[in-house]
Design brief:
Elements lengths: L1 H20 L2 H8 L3 H15 L4 E3 L4 E3 L1 H28 L4 E7 L1 H8 L3 H7 L3 E7 L6 H4 L3 E5 L7 E15 L1 H7 L13 E4 L10 E5 L2 E5 L5 E3 L2 H9 L4 E5 H9 L4 E3 L5 E11 L6 H13 L5 H11 L1
Parallel strand pairs: 3-4, 3-5, 7-10, 7-11
Antiparallel strand pairs: 1-2, 5-13, 6-11, 6-12, 6-13, 8-9
Helix pairs in contact: 1-2, 1-3, 1-4, 2-3, 10-12
Length: 315
């Protein structure tokens, strides 16, 4: 059975190449065999299948109706076989060269940058080109290998993997709360100094989400300052600028230092998800595989920044 299978596979390869190139001679040249070897392989395949695949003349080969159908199927089969071979080779290949990564600015600065040295230590031949910003980037057109985005964007050309929840919580400095009091309900934010976030892409202000009575309610409190960078908002809050909302991965280091504390933490919600995206064409790329493995370590099932916020909220 194995010998018959191998013989048929050899015949399919010879047949597909001859059909694509239009002659046994051209097929033989591309396969580095003799024209007679190609002809015999195709004839054996026809005998095994009980079909006539070509209409032959002295000058050309023309596919029969059965031949056209088999040619399409053979091309798909051989393409899949090539992908399997490339995947096996890629799995054994050492990551090297440049990997181009795009990510939102706060994720890049607060989560990726402090940990990238680990990737360098593990794969010394790999160079990271990290591009940070909130603008939309077409991965295919820009030649990007991996993108990290907030939310799940549908694109059939891309593969996605959920990394972690994108959790938002309100924060303030201990000194501000000591002077102005700590709000016990989101409605009380209207009586506080607030700092809000403006999206770079749309220019819209962030509507603050809170879990109230089992449902998510969004409010936009009056704000004395607005910024389009989460780090800038955190610095304003540290300087007793009031109450602001921030991703937990941005605020965690300020909370660890005692400069900020969570406010209304029991109402915090997962706004969306942090997602990794990469092109279908790069799914077997050793550089992409290495970086995705790195991301699994950077974004564990229980992110450390969320643990910091939860611990501070219990104090």
């Amino acid at each position: 059975m194995e010998q018959i299978g191998l013989e048929r596979l050899t015949g399919l390869i010879a047949f597909a190449r001859a059909a694509s190139l239009g002659s046994y001679t051209a097929a033989a040249r591309s396969l580095a065999v003799s024209p007679s070897a190609v002809s015999k392989s195709v004839q054996r395949l026809e005998q095994q299948l009980g079909l006539s695949l070509f209409t032959r003349t002295t000058r050309s080969l023309t596919l029969t109706a059965e031949g056209r159908d088999l040619h399409e199927r053979a091309l798909r089969l051989l393409h899949e076989a090539e992908e399997i071979e490339q995947a096996v080779l890629a799995a054994k290949a050492e990551p090297a060269g440049t990997i181009r990564v795009v990510a939102p600015l706060p994720i890049g600065t607060q989560v990726l940058a402090p940990r990238l040295a680990r990737l360098k230590a593990r794969f010394p031949k790999l160079t990271v080109d990290l591009r940070l910003g909130d603008e939309f980037v077409d991965l295919i057109k820009e030649g990007i290998d991996v993108a990290i985005r907030v939310g799940e964007l549908a694109d059939s050309r891309l593969i996605s993997r959920r990394l972690a929840p994108h959790r938002l919580c309100a924060f303030a400095s201990p000194a501000y709360l000591a002077e102005r009091g700590t709000p016990r309900h989101p409605d009380e934010l209207m009586r506080h100094d607030c700092v809000n976030f403006r999206f770079q892409s749309s220019g819209q202000l962030l509507r603050w989400p809170f879990l109230i009575g089992g449902r998510v309610v969004e409010i936009t409190p009056p704000s004395w300052a607005v910024a389009n960078a989460s780090d800038a908002i955190a610095e304003m809050l540290v300087a007793q600028g009031g109450i602001g909302i921030s991703p937990t991965y941005v605020a965690a280091r300020y909370v660890q230092r005692g400069e900020l504390v969570p406010v209304l933490a029991e109402c915090a919600v997962d706004r969306s998800t942090i997602t990794a995206l990469w092109p279908q064409s790069r799914r077997s790329n050793p550089n992409v595989r290495a970086f995705l493995s790195f991301l699994e370590e950077v974004f564990p099932p229980e992110p450390p920044w969320d643990a910091v916020i939860s611990a501070a909220a219990r104090i």
